[in-house]
Amino acid sequence: MLARPMKLRLIDAINVVSLWAEIFSWWSEVQMGPPDPILGVSEAYKRDTNPKKINLGVGAYRDDQGKPYVLSCVRKAEAQIAAKKLDKEYLAIGGLGDFTKACAKLALGDDNEVIKSGRNITVQTISGTGSLRIGANFLSRFHTEARDVYLPKPSWGNHTPIFRDAGMQLKAYTYYDPKTCGFDFQGALNDISKIPEKSVIMLHACAHNPTGVDPRPEQWKEIADLVKKRNLLVFFDMAYQGFASGDIDRDAWAVRYFIEQGHNIVLSQSFAKNMGLYGERVGGFTVVCKDAEEAKRVESQLKILIRPIYSNPPMNGARIAATILNTPDLYKEWLGEVHGMANRIITMRELLVANLKKEGSTRNWKHVIDQIGMFCFTGLKPEQVERLTKEFSIYMTKDGRISMAGVTSGNVGYLAQGIHAVTK
Amino acid sequence: IMSLFGEVPQATPVAVFKLSNDFKEDANPKKVNLGVGAYRTDEGQPWVLPVVKKVEKIIVADNSLNHEYLAILGLPEFRSSASKIALGEDSPAIQENRVGAVQCLGGTGALKMGAEFLRRWYNGNDNTKTPVYVSAPTWENHNAVFANAGFEDVRPYKYWDAEKRGLDLDGFLGDLESAPKHSIFVLHACAHNPTGTDPTHVEWMQVAEVMKRRKLFVFFDSAYQGFASGCLDKDAWAVRYFVTQGFEMFCAQSFSKNFGLYNERVGNLTIVARDSDNLKRVLSQMEKIVRVTWSNPPSQGARLVAITLNTPELFAEWKDNVKTMADRVLLMRASLQAKLQALETPGTWDHITQQIGMFSFTGLNPKQVEYMIKERSIYLMASGRINMCGLTTKNIDYVAESIHETVVNVQ
User: Fold this and answer.
1) CA of B243, closest CA in chain A: separation in Å?
2) How much is the ipTM here?
3) pLDDT class for A9, splitting at 50, 70, 90?
4) pLDDT of B263-321, one tens digit each?
5) Of A55, A158, B44, B285, which is most buried by a Cβ count within 10 Å?
6) How far apart are CA B59 and CA B54, in angstroms?
7) pLDDT in tens, B101-124
8) Spatial CB neighbours of B236, under 8 Å, sequence gap ≥ 6
9) What angle do CA B109, B111, B117 make, to 5 degrees?
10) Contacts of A384 (CB under 8 A, 6+ apart)
């Protein structure tokens, strides 16, 4: 080892800098990450100068003027919070208690036996993504009997990388039927019946992303039955409660039914869409346990998982959500506003189909109305999508998915024109 | 039915939070909490900075603002102004377009993102065997952050000399010399947590020289900029020096303490790369990691900090607020040291005023700490670390007397 004098002269520092200034970089082998397919759509849209352009890639609600919508109950909650002059002390690792309790009640119902017996643990998370990630990490660490997570085909694009990064393996079960643009119920049952015991099965609670295709209640019942026979661990992703049908309880029906049937599920919730709190990152992760004692153990381990990622969650959004959920007037107003958003989406679906008929389209567009939630799997093929973008400046993802939130009474006519033109 | 989680063991609680819990449950009216690291006023209360209150009002009144998603890497005006705070307004690296940043969930989130990136892309691909060195002692979460990112070999580097109650420079330099090439070193930019002991400028220069020669990776943790000396630039000296030395490096910044925004989780991972091309590729990969962890960061805190840093009058007011906090801490240090000297408490207590920042490593041993907690209801970490912010003009006599009594009666 070189002996070096411990005193450093200025001239040494300068020489060393010039030597260092030569090319060496730690990162020369770092590849350029592939562009995000969904973000890419928005970026291309921004660059387009066509005044008639429409952005149907956006996964955020827009009002009938195409503008972001801050809920009135949110503004009111913010004003209430501001008046309280609260401090900014760290939240507990598991988050704001007022929020997590209300979050669980919203999903499971006020009088749910699970909550009453204290056998759920609900932690505040960084919106839906953060919730899924914590869930994936938890399963990866503690659900050692099985490494496989079964996603519906297709599923939200980010599910796969999240679970993979957490160390789980991804498999799929049949879900969407491209022939009917609907639910392939038999296909799903067939695939589910073959899933090895104890595997994790991901179910979208409502408003399936990206297809908008949800099982009907009687179909959910059969799925619940089969899943129990196969002894699978159910992971519900509920990112659109209230946003799908306009009714909070109706959208949570599947989650509640499964629990009633004895499934001890894990559940991710997001308040990004139903409260319009996208950028505030409000979410919850729930584990339904055998009993309160188990819930305490699970809670302690969730904290151990959370601490090395971000220590404790952000206050602002959770405080807003808690205020809304726990203040009767605001809660009522919120239900109305969620209903309003869901209604506008449903109306746009109907308008789109009506306009397509008006354009003279003879194709079956029933699925546009049958599907539910923010997204619609149009059934358009990639070449058709490309034409729509190039010739009409209508932007959507290659799989033919459109965000109904991007449709307005002002642009639905033009949209129908474009779709008809590329499909006739 | 057998539970899938029947075998999940009860985890031991995180020490610093358990301490706060125990403090809360203590009925002794004289109790003092010298545990968790948050600023307190002389009334022992949390302090929302006046400038923060002002900016919150601005945000609430601005109807053009909404709650839409931020970009994956965060709010651009936050990221760039935060990096400027660390590296200096005139940083040549910034002018050369080779500085980028990722807005993260607090300082923890910034460390996490940096750790995840390094595990995937540094020293090969997915090289989990690259040693990560953290100071002995260090913030207890450092170990977990890097271990959870996949690093198999997280080790201590000599730092604190318990006997002389100061920096073990020879030990530190020795560990730098013997570390495997390309090892990652987590350096505390200022106000070392938990010891409050920072290297001097000359000592930092020596550290830098070895790190450069031995090709060690520089990962700064900067959680107290401004809070240590009261001056932002002074507290950033080490970080800026390393930049002038040409290092490619990471700096995890927290705005929890210096903005008092603890619960809004405002952090920034500043990245200094060789050039803009390398930077671009690094940021593109950071996006992938962010996407599978939290998708995009929370907007409220970042907005608040960005508005403050980018508005001259507000920026000046913020610096003033920071100085207020730092000055109170310095006052408490001087007071405590003076009182212990006046009491003629056995031992030397100069380290209390020599150390810097929120924390002081008192030198009390675990038995003495237990005595302080059980007999005097004064809560501090088992390591002997105290949060100076927990001291007030009203409780400092009680604390000084308690330390005196403890040192005299418990060995």
Assistant:
1) 10
2) 0.94
3) low
4) 999 999 999 999 999 999 999 999 999 999 999 999 999 999 999 999 999 999 999 99
5) A55
6) 9
7) 999 999 999 999 999 999 999 999
8) B85, B86, B87, B88, B189, B190, B222, B225
9) 100
10) A400, A422, A423
Check A237, A251, A334, A365 and give the catalytic one. Answer: A237
Amino acid at B366: P
Task: Give residues with Cβ within 8 angstroms of A179, minimum separation 6.
Answer: none
Catalytic residue among B139, B160, B318, B349: B139
Helices A10-20 and B201-213 cross at an angle (nearest 10°) of 40
A233 contact residues in B (CB cutoff 8 A): 4
The continuous run of DSSP H or E covering A87 comes out as none
Query: What DSSP string runs through A142-200?
Result: H-TT--EEEEEES--TTHHHHHHHTT-EEEEEE-EETTTTEE-HHHHHHHHTTSPTT-E
Enumerate the H helices of A311-327 as residue ranges.
315-326
Rounded to whole angstroms, the Cα distance separating B342 from B400 reads 10
For residue B304, give the nearest of B56, B97, B138, B76 by alpha carbon. B56
Q: In terms of Cα–Cα distance, which of B88, B115, B118, B113 is closest to B101? A: B113
Estimate to the nearest angstrom the gap between the alpha carbon of A194 and the chain centroid.
27
pLDDT tens across B69-95, in order? 999 999 999 999 999 999 999 999 999
Among A73, A136, A67, smallest CA distance to A327 is for A73
Whether residue B276 lies within 8 A of chain A, CB to CB, comes out as no
Backbone phi, psi, residue A121, to 5°: -120, 125
